[in-house]
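Page header: ASSEMBLY MODEL / two components / 739 residues total.
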Amino acid sequence: MYLDADSSKCTGCRVCLTVCSLYHFKEVNPKKAALAVDAKFPKPGHYEVRVCNQCGTCASVCPVEAISEKSGIYIIDADKCTGCGECVKACPTQVMFLHEDSPVPIKCDLCKECIPLCGTKVLFLKD
Amino acid sequence: MFAERSPFGFGYGGKILRVNLSNGKITTEPLPGKLVRDYLGGRGFAARILYDELKPGIDPMGPDNKVLIASGPLAGLFLPAGGKITFAAKSPATNSYGDSNMGGHLAAEVKYAGYDVIIIEGAAAQPVYLYINNDKVEIRDAAKYWGQGAIITEDMLKNDLGREFEIATIGPAGENKIKFACISHDFGRQAGRTGIGAVMGSKNLKAVAVKGTKSLKVADPDKLLEIGKQAFADCFKHTGWKQWVAQGTAGVTVWSNQQGSFPTRNFQSGSLKGYENISGDELVKQTLVNHKACFGCPCACGKYAKTVRNNKDYYVEGPEYETAALIGGDCAIGNMADLTYANYICDELGIDTISGGSVVAFAMECYEKGIITKKDTGGMDWKFGSIEAFDKIINMIARRQGIGNLLADGVKIASEKLGKGSEKFAMQVKGLEISGYESRNAPAMMLAYMTCDIGAHHNRAWAITHDIQVGRDIIEGKAKKVVELQHIRPIFDMVGCCRLQWVELELKLDYYPQLLKAATGLDFTWDEMLKASERVWNLTRLFLIKEHTQTFGRQFDYPPARWYEETVVNGPTKGSIISKANIDILLDEYYNVRGWDKNGKPTPEKLKELGL
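Prediction written out in full:
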């Protein structure tokens, strides 16, 4: 099971990003969220939402084996992670992020907090 | 007043950024605690700082004026629609306190960069833009952007700096100091009113570009998560939510025409024949590209649209209700393709569609009455309904060409110069053109326009629904409601949120003190927030008095003569008029409710009560 997105419905409000940061870091910062919204304006005038589909590429490139799979969700072990950024570079959907505050990359743990907060139902679960 | 250091580490950005364009000095100051307690944020901060720092009588277009960009404590947080920021300055339209509230994503970004207020003072010798990347702040050369349209400039700056930068920019109208030039952001959001775009232009300031990557710490994260979720859920489950997302404010057009409150042909009438052609339904059918929300907004009232004209694509956000009213109705541009194109022209030139539409409508009526002739128009027919005429007039204004130079100062000054009775149909109060509600049969709405502190704008008190609810002919008691609204609605501009969740989706006002507590740790009751709002209202009144010490009196609060000397010529409110005597009753009641004297000055007792 993973998070999927129908970008055609996105209004660009970025609530998904704020709740992601508040839930995980106890502070608000859309740049510390595990998904991304790209605004394509002035043309063609829509948003593209990028989400983690738990493909596991990050785990396969991690040089210290800090990323492991549990029930289909890839989780970073903060104690093992060296912050080298190899996973960030390799992520096919570019939804792993390094932030100056955090030595460990930010990655979706499928907490599902964002889903009900998206009024236009861009975000949904896929098996 | 900046002596006391802010004890507030939560919710707020924490700093005031001050940039002097004359000498290049850039400094930061901690946010003063007293300012927070007495004025909350946003519009409150802006009013207090401008009142303290501007000398009375300064030229709004001179280096002594200041442009303030002020965010509020709830902006950028996890809660419904915390995406509002206030632009403020001494207004060239009213020569008094002016502010304009803008959505989009700038408010949040300014907070993430660590600031609550940006104060821009002085004037640059040549075109510049302000670059803010967290703590790195620079005044940069803007030669390549100067002269470009607002939409193009935003795109160019994003290409040059990174798409993640949030941009606020002026177009050619601001550069040419048009008194209703706006500030544009997010490809369709504007700080439209009171001409602050012209103040930016007078400072040679083309744009402000902001990137912030810092986190906003909040006092009680778990509580904010809990209340925020509940507030979003309340919005989504409201019966009006779907319609609001579907059409945004464009959905108001049909209702307004049916109420006879749609400004038509320069407020001669209250309903446009064929208004169905510019309805929200037609927008969705003909031009809608995507629903577009401001930061944190569950409602997405922005309707991003595309129209094709002479085989060329034009993209623009809108037309929202006010644009439909002042261009669609007031200039009688009665089809969606022309209206969308007119919206695009204004947005690219950087002109407020409310004042811009009103000024063009005024010019069209002057042409109709022979006050403006073919000698002025270059032989063109400036008749109502002509998109070609609209295009020509608005471009002449933006470039101050010919009679456009006169119109560029707004309908008040233009009518004083043109004379021949045009003052009577110059639809403005205090120098600011009236926004989208014909009010001859809506006394509360009229009083709201008469007394609005920035000139005739609806956002402080959208009282027409009260008129409809309690009886449109009733005069007595309307002042009380207007004052009540004038205290509630500006609170949203102070905390940095949109008011539409409360207005349209009945989001409970109880949420706001709770959200403020969770975010900042500050214990405000709703009544205390109302008191702060009243304090700001009285302060902006003092600003007006200070700027007009010799001439100040109740005449500042009168509407244009059209509203008490001419009847509505068409539509459901046909024949309605308000008497001058009733206007005075409205004002007497209003001053009484406010604790102001019969000339509209706050009494010493009222000022003492508010700590002013």
